[in-house]
Each structure stands twice: as C-alpha cells, then as structure tokens.
C-alpha cells in the first residue's frame, strides 16, 4: 500500500512538472494578428508578409504575425480601441488617427510636412517624436513599433482638372475621420467628407463624394479609375504610416522578441517604401493607359501657402517647426 502511495505521488509530481513545462512552452509562443485596410495587391501587403516571415524566422517560430488585408479584422478606429485594451492585434495606421490621443503627433499628416523618404525615415528618432511615442505607449496603451512605412505622395483624383486651390471649391473629397486630415483638405480648398476606405467606390458611384485624395497604387488596386477621370499631382501629403500594437502585449514579450519585432518592422518598412516609389510610376502609367488624364502643371506654391491654414487652425505650427528642425528640413 505504501509503495502504491509513493508511486502515485511520484506520478503526480511528474504530471505537475510536465504540465508546468507545457505552460512555460505555451507562454514562449506568441501571435500578433495584424490588420490593414489595403488590398492584397498593394505593395504594403507584401511588405507586411515579409515582416511576418522575418520575425518568425528570427524568433524560431516563437513570435508569429498573421496578416489580414482589406480590414478583415474590422474598421481601423475600432481595431485601435481593441489594441488599447491589450488585445494581441496590430494595425497599420497614420499620424492623423494617433493625433486623437496625442494631438502633436498629427503634424506628420499635415500638408507638405515631409517631402522625401530621407526626411520621413528621420522622424522615428527625432526627440519630439520619441516623446510623443512614449506618451502614446505610457498613457494610451499604443506602442508604435516603427514608422518607416511611407505610402507615397497623395494627390487629388477627381472628375475635373485641378491646378490651384480655387479649383477644389465646392468639391466633396473623401478623407479618413481625423481632424488634421479634414482640416488639411479644407485648407487646400475642398470640403472633406469622412468615409472608410472600403466605401469609396460606391460613394463615388452614388455621388456622395466628388473625389478622393490617395496615392496612385490605391487607385489601380481599387479600380477607382472607373469612376474618376483626372489625377491632379498636388503631392500635398507624403503619407507616413505607423505600425502600432498594444503596449501591454508588447511589454509581455521576451526582450529578444521585442527587438526582432521592432528591427524587422523598420527594415521591411524602408524596403517597402522604396518599392512603393517604383510602384507609383508604374501605377501612374497604368492609369494613363486606362484613360485617366494626369494633370502635372499644378501650382504647388499656391497649395503650400493654402496648407498653412491647417496648422494654424489646429494650433500645430510650433510643433511642426520643432520637428522639421530636428530632422533637418
């Protein structure tokens, strides 16, 4: 009887040890479900897939990133709120939306704020930008993994030619639902209409909006040339994208996993940004082949001057000047 009891105790101890080891192994495996609104044919999607592959390889499968295109996990604003609550979800987003939590960071989305990849890549380490990122993480639960993803120059795509700000008068232009974005488009001469990316095509068909401001690859990927005639090269925003995850989730990762996530995000982002530059020219040529007219003789100086009003309205002139000085612009 005593031997049976000892045997049972030993087996129980072994079972507990095995269970504990299994739990430890389970805790060493992490998954990030990453959401973005772009289609599977966009350069960014492949870039996110590259990021995921490199992180998984670098962590020997310990950290996996599952990429969901076309907002499969939900609307961007809703996803950001889930991230803030600690969910293991990531989102490709922009300074305009992050400005809802830390107002100053919205300047990155302002008219003509940065105008080259070199300037954009310098933003991540600018002291003021670092302060804002720390505030997002510490006070709002949003960890910026990196911001080296540049989606290209945004232009106005309409059904009439646009050469100066006055030409936009009365036109309803789709924008994401964020103050800096709406004020930027208003300052440049149009009437902003907040609308989700997936609603653009039917919105144009139903004439709920008169045009959009997007990058060239967005137009080809979504076939918006079917409902728009002119590409007006205002280049009013060089769109810098931020990859965000939950601060709580990020802090729970092993240190080497955190490093891998951040470094590979930056590497893939900079590579993808250069791919996007090349894709812009290709998409532009494709749109011209499809019958879209490119308006290149735009009065950029007039648009630059008009854009100043957005910074004034939102009280962001000082913040803009400070960051631009830090990156040498």
UniProtKB/TrEMBL annotation:
The keyword Cell membrane does not apply. CDD domains: PBP2_TRAP_TM0322_like. The keyword Transit peptide does not apply. It holds the Pfam family DctP. Residues 1-26 form the signal peptide. It comes from the Bacteria. InterPro entries: DctP_fam (IPR018389), TRAP_DctP_sf (IPR038404). Keywords: Signal. PANTHER family: C4-DICARBOXYLATE-BINDING PROTEIN, PTHR33376. This is C4-dicarboxylate TRAP transporter substrate-binding protein. It comes from Phyllobacterium phragmitis. The lineage of its organism: Bacteria, Pseudomonadati, Pseudomonadota, Alphaproteobacteria, Hyphomicrobiales.
């Amino acid at each position: 009887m005593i031997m049976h009891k000892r045997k049972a105790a030993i087996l129980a101890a072994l079972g507990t040890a095995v269970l504990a080891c299994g739990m430890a192994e389970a805790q060493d495996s992490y998954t990030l479900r990453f959401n973005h609104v772009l289609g599977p044919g966009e350069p960014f999607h492949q870039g996110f897939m590259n990021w995921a592959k490199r992180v998984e390889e670098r962590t020997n499968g310990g950290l996996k990133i599952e990429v969901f295109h076309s907002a499969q996990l939900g609307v961007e604003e809703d996803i950001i709120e889930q991230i803030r609550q600690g969910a293991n979800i990531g989102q490709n987003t922009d300074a305009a939306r992050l400005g809802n939590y830390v107002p100053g960071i919205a300047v990155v989305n302002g008219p003509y704020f940065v105008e080259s990849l070199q300037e954009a890549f310098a933003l991540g380490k600018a002291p003021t930008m670092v302060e804002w990122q720390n505030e997002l993480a510490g006070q709002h639960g949003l960890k910026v993994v990196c911001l080296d993803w540049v989606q290209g120059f945004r232009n106005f795509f309409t059904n009439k030619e646009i050469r100066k700000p006055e030409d936009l008068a009365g036109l309803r232009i789709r924008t994401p639902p964020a103050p800096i974005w709406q004020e930027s488009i208003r300052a440049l001469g149009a009437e902003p209409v907040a609308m989700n990316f997936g609603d653009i095509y039917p919105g144009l068909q139903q004439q709920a909006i008169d045009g959009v401001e997007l990058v060239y690859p967005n137009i080809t990927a979504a076939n918006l040339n079917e409902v728009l005639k002119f590409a007006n090269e205002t280049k009013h925003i060089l769109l810098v994208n931020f990859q965000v995850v939950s601060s709580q989730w990020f802090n729970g990762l092993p240190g080497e996993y955190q490093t891998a996530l951040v470094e590979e995000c930056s590497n893939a982002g900079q590579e993808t940004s250069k791919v996007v530059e090349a894709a812009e020219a290709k998409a532009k040529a494709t749109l011209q082949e499809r019958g879209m007219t490119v308006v290149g003789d735009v009065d950029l100086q007039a648009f630059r001057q008009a854009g100043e009003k957005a910074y004034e309205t939102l009280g962001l002139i000082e913040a803009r000047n400070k960051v631009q000085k830090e990156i040498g612009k």
